[in-house]
Every structure is written in C-alpha cells, then in structure tokens.
Amino acid sequence: MKIGICNDHAGVAYKNKLMKMLRRRGFEVVNYGTDVEQSCDYPDFAHRLAEAVEGGEVDLGIALCGTGNGMAITLNKHQGIRAGLAWNTAVGALVKAHNNANVLVLPARFIPYRMASLIVRTWLETEFEGGRHQRRIDKMPCR
Ligand code: RB5
Predict the structure, then answer these.
(1) Which of 5, 92, 106, 110 is deepest in the core (most CB within 10 A)?
(2) From ligand 1's centre to the CA of 104, what distance in Å?
C-alpha cells in the first residue's frame, strides 16, 4: 500500500515521525508536504496530495496542519476526496468504517504525537462497513 502524506509548517515534526513509523511497518510513503517550519500556505500541499489520491498515484492520504481544518476544507473541494478529521482513535476508526475517508486529517497542534500515531494505525486497520454508509456517501456529491 502506498500512502501520500502532506503538511504545512505546523505538521513537519509529526509528518517526519509518521513517515518513519509507516515505513517501519512496510508501507510505501510519498511526501507531498513542506520539510521546513517556515510559515507556508496549507492549500499548496493539500491540492498536491488530493491530486495524487484522485489520480491513483497513492492509495490513501494523511494530511496535517495546526487544527486540521484548513487541510480538510481544501482537500474536500476535490470530488474524489473524502477527507476526515480525527482527534482520537474512536473517531479515527469511524471515519473509515462509516465515511470511508481516503484522506485522514490530523490536528498536529492539538493532539500528542502518540495519539496521532495511534489514530493513523487504527484508521489503516479499520475496514469500511458499506451498506447504509455507502448509500450516504453516494449522496455526497453536490447536485
Ligand atoms: C497555521 O498557523 C495554521 O493556520 C494552519 O496550520 C491550520 O491550523 C489551518 O487550518
């Protein structure tokens, strides 16, 4: 499985640790984020990741910014993206089981790294439940 990861300046440290953790576990990881902590604009990186997921360059994505909201809002402008924000493992599981999020978004400034790592592992291990949740996803595109 190939995972794309992106971040702004608020997510550099967590991104680096998450990439190491994922590679140790055998995932291929592609970095679409900034590697410096100098202030930058999260949409520049969110669009790159969204295009990579939509184009099949990577299977799933992970995005980090301070609150997670800037990344989530930008990513969800893309038709092929379901980006979900998670701040604990229960939400990390549900965002896959119920929403089939193909991008997991993490609020780097509001959760400890240990929690970020646990959420990522939970989201990756959880299966989409389909059924009524698929029906709801089918209703998501704007009419
Ligand atoms: C950057 O200061 C911050 O605005 C950004 O990381 C994110 O929280 C935006 O939603």
Answers:
(1) 106
(2) 16
70 pocket-lining for ligand 1 (C-beta < 6 Å): yes
> Does residue 43's CB lie within 6 angstroms of at least one atom of ligand 1?
no
Residue 111: the pLDDT is: 99
Domain spans of the chain, in order of start: 2-138
The string of pLDDT tens digits covering residues 83-117 is: 999 999 999 999 999 999 999 999 999 999 999 99
Q: Which CATH architecture has domain 2-138?
A: 3-Layer(aba) Sandwich (3.40)
Which residue of the set 40, 98, 133, 142 is catalytic?
98
Q: Cβ distance 120 to 104 under 8 Å?
A: yes
Atom of ligand 1 nearest to the CA of 70: 10
- For the full predicted model, state whether its pTM sits above 0.85: yes
Q: Is 65 a known active-site residue?
A: yes
